[in-house]
Amino acid sequence: MSKEGKEVLKSGIWYTVSSVAIRAVSIITSPIYTGMLSTGDYGIANTFNSWIEIFNIFTCLCVVYSIGRAKLDFADKFDEYLSCLQGLSSSFAAVVLIGAVIFREQISALIKYEIPLVIVLFAYLVVSPSVEYTLQKCRYEYRYKENILISLITCIGTVACSILLMLVFNDRRYFGKIIGSILTTFLLGICFYVRILLRGKRFFKKEYWIYALKFGLPMIPHALALVVLAQIDRIMIRDLCSESDAGLYIYGYGFATLLMIFTNAIGQAWLPWFNEELFAGHREQIKNYQKKLVLLGTFLTIGFVTVAPEALMLLAPRGRAYWIAKWVVPPVALGALAQYFYTNYVNVELFHKKTPIIAASSILAAVVNFGLNAVFIPRFGYIAAAYTTFASYLFLMLFHYVATRFVIKENVYANLYMFLAMLFTTGICLVITLFYQNASDGEAYVLTPLYRYGFMVLVLGIFAIVKRHDIMLLFDYLKQKYLKKNVKK
Q1: Is 96's pLDDT higher than 70?
Q2: In 3-state terms, the chain is what percent helix, strand and coil (to 5)?
Q3: Other Cβ atoms closer than 10 A to 378
């Protein structure tokens, strides 16, 4: 492997590990939140994050999607491009902030949060995208150490501020949780805003703004649709069921999204390399590596579904009311896997600058999700939302495959392999779900975890036999890389 290839691999591995570890910190600290917040306050605090994601789509104009391709098209002026990109999004966000101040009462009535939180929300959206721009720059330049440091500061700062402010606002702890969750990113956003501007030394350049808007504007419907898929469930549950049910759904969804953080980290680490290889025309090499990533996602999903009941109990040892949220995990985890798979097709569409295709597919999936939610949540409760989300992600996977294969006419993946992996994982996870039991089920509750873990070991054992050649190659690589190195020392 070349020196450049080793750097790409090292960057990808560390980026993935750090992303999962940082997300794990927030998961591990969730018992603190569940102990300090009622299920209702937990739902209120986390639903606010949903509104942040929704409004951020419009205020930042989705120009962040242009960064990957811009790194190839403006390689020698990348800092200048990012500086103008920031100028574009922050200018528009500032205009929206002024509008939010003028119409604060109407917005407050719409989102059902007090006026001070409305102002805080839109002020946050002016500078917070600068953190993401900085992380993207580090990612595409393989500067993983800086990327990890920024993520670590954000994670620790968010947890510390949330706990401190929940204690300060003891009578309104949801308010403290909301402010604590955004304070660190807000402060970092100000710092990185200045830093990007100083390095790029440009606020406006017509060529860059037009380039970014051609990418970003068609992606607004796409991004909004993804937020609908990921966030509208909890809003509809709160309105159609209760704030308590929304809190339970968010809790179970939160554990399942640890898997999503893992798969997204793998995808983001792979993306810079993918763009460069596709640019160079190395399609067969892409296909071979992507098959390995498919297998990794498959078995991560099976593992998450297997351990979900015990994991949720450990994360809320004193919050017995939260344990029933385990039923949310299997369909959400499968949805995360479908998202992991279809993102491969989205990467191809972005590379070829076919953003309208991405937007169209996402809008259709969001309409499907909203319709299914409206029908099934009132009849079957909050757990139904997890299954409607899974169905919507499956639809997206199929639609993006059709668009990439037959509209763009690009064939860089082992498509049948990916769809069979999705089918296999769904079947295995449904079987595992049969061995979920409630703590009140006595002896059955003691035995079913043994059945679940035994079944997982059996599946992994069969996989090890079938893929023994690849596993031996991995062991040989590690032996040469580390054991021989230590012997020389």
Answers
A1: yes
A2: 90, 0, 10
A3: 12
CB 399 within 8 A of CB 361: yes
Task: Give yes or no for a contact between 235 and 311, defined as CB atoms under 8 angstroms apart.
Answer: no
Q: Which candidate, 49, 50, 52, 69, places its Cα nearest to that of 60?
A: 52
Q: What whole-number distance in Å separates Cα of residue 86 and Cα of residue 129?
A: 8
- Tell me: pLDDT of 253 over 90: no
Task: Note whether residue 252 is domain-resident.
Answer: yes
Tell the burial category of 233 from Cβ atoms under 10 Å away from its Cβ (0-12, 13-18, 19+): buried
Q: What whole-number distance in Å separates Cα of residue 309 and Cα of residue 290? A: 31
Nearest to 65 by CA among 278, 216, 193, 210: 216
The total of structural domains in the chain comes to 1
Cα angle vertex 440, ends 438, 446, to 5°? 70
How would you class 381 by CB atoms within 10 Å of its CB: exposed for 0-12, middle for 13-18, buried for 19 or more? middle
User: Is 459 among the domain residues?
Assistant: no
Q: Give the structural domain span for 17.
A: 3-436
Average the pLDDT over 471-475 and give the result.
Answer: 58
Helices (H), 112-242: 115-127, 129-140, 144-168, 173-200, 206-240
Give residue 181's identity as a one-letter amino acid code.
S
pTM: 0.69
Cα 416 from Cα 409, distance rounded (Å): 16
Model confidence band, residue 350 (pLDDT cutoffs 50, 70, 90): confident
Token digits for 54?
């929704």
The string of pLDDT tens digits covering residues 181-215 is 899 999 999 999 999 999 998 999 999 999 999 88
Q: Quick check: is 471 in a domain?
A: no
Residue 94 has a pLDDT of: 95
Task: Specify whether the CB–CB gap between 392 and 376 falls below 8 A.
Answer: no
205: DSSP letter: -
Is residue 73 predicted with pLDDT exceeding 70? Answer: yes
pLDDT digits (tens, 9 = 90+) for 366-424: 888 888 888 888 888 788 888 898 998 998 899 899 988 888 888 888 889 899 999 99
Q: Is residue 483 over pLDDT 60?
A: no
On whether the CB atoms of residues 160 and 187 are closer than 8 A, the answer is no
* Three-state SS sequence of 235-270: HHHHHHCCHHHHHHHHHHHHHHHHHHHHHHHHHHHH
Residue 412 per-residue DSSP state? -
164 in a domain, yes or no?
yes
